[in-house]
Amino acid sequence: MKNTLRLGAAAIAILVAGPAFAAGKMTLYCSPQEEWCQLMVTEFEKETGIKVAMTRKSSGETFAQIKAEASNPKGDVWWGGTGDPHLQAAEEGLTEAYTSEHLDELHDWAQRQHAAADKKSVGIYAGALGFGYNEELLKKHGLPEPRCWSDLIKPEFRGEVQMANPNSSGTAYTMLATMVQLMGEDEAFDYLKALHQNINQYTKSGSAPIKAAAQGETTVGIVFQHDAVTMRVTGAPIKVVSPCEGTGYEIGSMSIIKGARNLEEAKKFYDFALRPDIQTMAAQAKAYQVPSNKQATPPPEAPDFDEIKLIDYDFKKYGSSDERQRLLKKWDEEVAAQPR
Amino acid sequence: MLNRPLAAWLAAGWAAALLLPWYMLDDGLFSFVWLTEGYAGDRDYAPALFQVLWHERYWLAPLGLFLALPLLAVGRPDNGRGTGMLLVAAGAGGLFWLLLQGFGIDHRGVSLALLEPLVPEGGRQYGMGWGASLVALAFLFFITQGLAAHGLARGDVFVAGSIGLVVALVAAFIFFPVLTILSSALRDNQGALAPFLFLDKLFDGRIWGTACLTGGGRCGSAWNSLILAVLTGLSTTLLGLAFALVVTRTGFRAKRMLRTLTVLPIITPPFVIGLAIILLFGRSGAVTQFVADLLGLDAGRWVYGLPGILFAQTLAFTPIAFLVLIGVVEGVSPSMEEAAQTLRADAWTTFTTVSLPLMRPGLANAFLLGFIESLADFGNPLVLGGSYDVLATDIFFAIVGAQYDQGRAAVLAIVLLSFTLMAFWAQQRWLGRRSYATVSGKGDSGLPLQLPPALRRLCYVVVIPWAALTAVIYLMILFGGFVEFWGRDHTLTLRHYIHAFSVVEGEHGLVWSGAAWNSFWTTLQIAAISAVPTAALGLLTAWLLVRQSFGFKRAFEFGTMLSFAIPGTIIGVSYILAFNVPPLELTGTGIILVISFVFRNMPVGVRAGIATMSQLDRSLDEASLTLRANSFTTVRKVILPLLRPAILAALVYSFVRAMTAISAVVFLVSANYEMATTYILGRVENGDYGLAIAYCSVLILVMLAAIGLMQWVVGHRRLGRRAPSVASAAEQTS
Fold first, then answer.
1. Which of residues 58-117 of B touch A (CB under 8 A)?
2. Alpha carbon A119 to chain centroid, angstroms
3. Does A170 contact B585 at a Cβ distance shorter than 8 Å?
4. Quick check: B671 and A27 CB within 8 A?
5. d(CA A162, CA A189)
6. Which residues, other chains included, contact B578 with Cβ-Cβ below 8 Å and sequence gap of 6+?
7. What's the gap in Å between the CA of B15 and the closest CA on chain A?
8. What ipTM was reported for this prediction?
9. How far is B399 from chain A, CA to nearest CA, in Å?
10. Per-residue pLDDT averaged across A227-232, rounded?
11. Nearest to residue B605, comparing CAs of B706, B682, B691, B714?
12. What confidence category does residue A14 fall into, taking pLDDT thresholds of 50, 70 and 90?
């Protein structure tokens, strides 16, 4: 009786679900913008027939979810989003080590991310920090064009600069860490204190300052340059600036989640996402970061990494929890608590 | 003999154990593949009996014992003490074992040494499914039946069962997850106990700093939140009262329009009001620019910070106060007011000494809701906060920010909860033990008193400009969906709507090709599904609180209010922590969304129910009971029809909140269940305002239609009040 039932069930299962199951499925946690996520899913499904269930959440939200789900993971791959939470996930053992056959084709910085995370993460794109300003407002207030970090602390910019709060935003933390590496810790904090006098608002979200600049609510917004490019492409009078002293950058990363239920499919996606032809497609989804594969063509609108003075950003050191906590606390006590 | 409800639950328990799949199905609750794909022969689909017999899950066997125990009661006198003891033992034993094995053996295998002898090598199990849940319910009702036999709720089986049900649900879906996350307040990031770190976090200057009072610097987020919540509570209650008075007690002509207008803000998805306010009052906003040009001032950024948030919250939460107050204001008995006037009190004295005090429960409840909503609100401070930090946003960014710190989030949540507790306590003190009953069985067909002229003018002065402002904001929002780039390029276009909601003719009929359809249908479905249980559970709880007496009533009441006071972020993360693993494995399903909505929004049903019900005189229930109706019939035939405003408020509110909630939902949505708000949030993050606003406009229209439909289904309460004019008298009698 029992066996007959089982046989029957198996037969039906093969008849009904067989072909669909053969191609497999996977769950993708995706952190960049919706269009880019959709594009990746569609292309991957088209090529492999693997069904992808995709959820888009910001990198902080995804990290929180993966951490909360750690005892019974539901996701397979976490694609995109700034590198620090990926490193943190690696540090806490939430992600799986994997080395793709495409690793050698990647830019140096992407490979360094792989090494820094003990192979548990890899760089897929990079975006340089900088700022953008509203050309119309600048003219209206008769302000000089800012070209360097040091321009932003000039007294005439009082109340005209906006940045995110590094406690809530990875973008602003990157800026804090960049300043420390660029100027040395003491001078960096002197700079941030001076900048504090010109800041009109510390926003919660990292890209909010440039949106405010596009709307005319602030003149200058400190953000990743590709976010400023996105606003410019929508038609806002935003000018993107790469600071003359040099600047830091983020590495958008990808990790396989530890305990992934569909590990084979996850690895396929991982390799797929590192391929040059796939990375070149990013521009279709209005993503203006620099791709990590050397053979991929960056979008024409993307800030040219060869023209930007990039600092040698130490992701391992400034991505670690201890250093981050120390800097954030110091910023909070010495900068944010100052009267304006 | 067994009484009928008990026999029914016993049968249900056995049927669940013998026939229904015991574990949660991967394919969803309403999938029936288990019938065709193996059923009892399949390890995943088999009912409990077959799990024990064929699949080596021996640890389920003791449950049969506890299910069999009540059978001993057959033939014993009904409701005898012995039977009661037996039932309690069966129910409590069964539930205990269910929980023990549920938490002791999970998807990774056995973790409780005690259970190891029962579990063969590699034995493991998944979350509770239909079978397990129904059996758990049966055990629960054994307990309440047994306790009723011992005199709980004066032996009323229905009341005892209701109390048991509400307590169990609140315990499972509020206390369990919330305690899971709050316990992390005592731990460091690695999970080790760290009580000193807790104190350190609790007395952090970022929470309690008072530098802004002494000049310079900033104040802690706790003070900011508290100030904001008190101001919002006051402003929403006063405005809500003004609206309620204008609608019920004046000859104002455009009442209907006013009602619709007051409902608009609650049906608005988050961020939109904030964006509209920036476009009007921001530095480059239309109004700010106009005033600046007029006065020759430099346009300022005054709207960011306390003024902006207060403004947005007042706009957003006044409707809740209005919904609570309208039922109460309508319910105030004209005969009392007429009595005052017979005693030669003038209109003003009558209003301040009779009408207003009778509205106290409404005022107190409205204030409490406004206060709590403001504390937990996250969307408005996010958009308009400037550098004004509040607890709700701090909590969100303690979890998703640059430094994941669950402990800090939990500490902040504890601070926030203690504020709620204080407000709740103050409200109880203020209401005291007086009676506010004004709807009784006696003939009470008085004429509702018109407002005193001075007060009427004041109400008009407040209500009309506010209504106009609301109208302007909504026209702007509607407009924003039809232009290229809201606030910058006002060329008319339909492209946002086409992108989101296009439908094309395909080979096989219509194809819903718009980008928004998927999340739109899911949202509509989930909101509709969650509205009914929310209202039912809320009103049932209110009825228990107002009409029944039992020992732990205050604690019970606070427990039901708890989920409302907890910020969505905490609920979201705590639901993942608690419900990602067996025995209740719900993440990634639509059910987890429904459950989170039901338990988050239930308190509104409870509040509205309490406010309305404390006006209904007990003599009505007593009359019904004297006529030998049981408590269930009394609720259905007497209380429910008089509760129509409260039912409507609860239904509307839960539906709407399910469509507009964001902070909890962010963590609970999954690939198959994406909600409209998270989709919109994604667009806003990307600066794609046109699409976000177009989507919001559609949602607003859908909600308006849904509210109209609900109003029509629930109907109006008819109190035996004389109507002021012949025309409307005809309307009432028709």
1. 107-108
2. 18
3. no
4. yes
5. 17
6. B176, B177, B180, B584
7. 21
8. 0.82
9. 6
10. 90
11. B714
12. very low
Q: How far is the C-alpha of B382 from the C-alpha of A204, rounded, in Å?
A: 7
pLDDT at A198: 93
Q: Which residues pair with residue A26 across a beta bridge?
A: A52
The closest CB to that of A60, out of B401, B577, B670, belongs to: B401
List residues bridging with A51 in a β-sheet.
A25
pLDDT given for residue A115 in this prediction:
92
Taking CB atoms and an 8 Å limit, are A55 and B37 in contact across chains?
A: no
User: What pLDDT is stored for residue B443 in this prediction?
Assistant: 54
Helix (H) or strand (E) holding B505: strand B504-506
pLDDT of residue B332: 78
All structural domains of chain A: 14-126+250-304 (3.40.190.10), 127-249+320-336 (3.40.190.10)
Place of tokens 């026939």: B19
pLDDT in tens, B276-320: 888 888 887 888 888 888 877 766 777 888 999 999 999 888 888
According to CATH, what is the number of the domain B207-434+456-487? 1.10.3720.10
Average pLDDT of every residue of chain A: 88
For residue B353 the two structure tokens come to 């000494």
Where b means 16+ CB within 10 Å and e means fewer, B382-421 reads: bbbbbebbbbbbbbbbbbbbbbbbbbbbbbbbebbbebbe
Task: Indicate the pairing of strand A238-241 with strand A122-134.
Answer: antiparallel
In the chain, the amino acid numbered B38 is G
Which of A82, A168, A231 to mutate to probe the B interface, most B CBs <10 Å? A168
Task: Write down the pLDDT at residue B437.
Answer: 67
Q: Cα distance from A239 to chain B (closest Cα, Å)?
A: 16
CB atoms within 10 A of CB B197: 18
3-state secondary structure of A209: helix
pLDDT tens, position by position, A91-141: 999 999 999 999 999 999 999 999 999 999 999 999 999 999 999 999 988
Can you give the pLDDT at residue B14? 92
- The span from the CA of B32 to the CA of B130, in Å, is 12
Residue A265 scores a pLDDT above 90 = yes
Domain boundaries, given as residue ranges, for chain B: 4-150, 207-434+456-487
Phi (first) and psi of residue B436, to 5 degrees: -120, 15
Tell me the C-alpha distance between B661 and B683, whole Å: 16
- Among A5-14, A209-218, B708-717, the minimum mean pLDDT is found in A5-14
B632 touches chain A (CB under 8 A): no
- Residue A127 forms beta bridges with which residues? A250
**CA dist B335 → B251, B338, B346 (Å):** 20, 5, 15
Nearest to A249 by CA among A195, A310, A158: A310
Q: Which residues contact A330 (CB under 8 A, 6 or more apart)?
A: A189
Alpha-helical segments (H) within B432-516? 453-480, 495-501
Helix A59-68 / helix A83-91 crossing angle, nearest 10 deg: 20
User: Is B346 an interface residue toward A (CB < 8 Å)?
Assistant: no
Query: What pLDDT is recorded for position B93?
Result: 93
Picking from B324, B409, B317, the residue whose alpha carbon sits closest to that of residue B372 is B317
CA distance B316 to chain A (A): 21
Record the tokens describing residue B204, joined without a space. Answer: 């952090």
Structure tokens at B531: 């509205």
Q: Tell me, yes or no, if A202 comes closer than 8 A to chain B by beta carbon.
A: yes
Percent of chain B with pLDDT over 70: 92
- A19-32 pLDDT tens trace: 344 478 899 999 98
Which of the four pLDDT bands, split at 50, 70 and 90, describes residue A267? very high
Read out DSSP for B599-624? HHHHHHHHHHHHHHHTTB-HHHHHHH
The yes-or-no verdict on residue B169 having pLDDT over 80 is yes
Instruction: For chain B, say whether A139 makes contact (Cβ under 8 Å).
Output: no
Percent of chain B residues topping a pLDDT of 90? 11
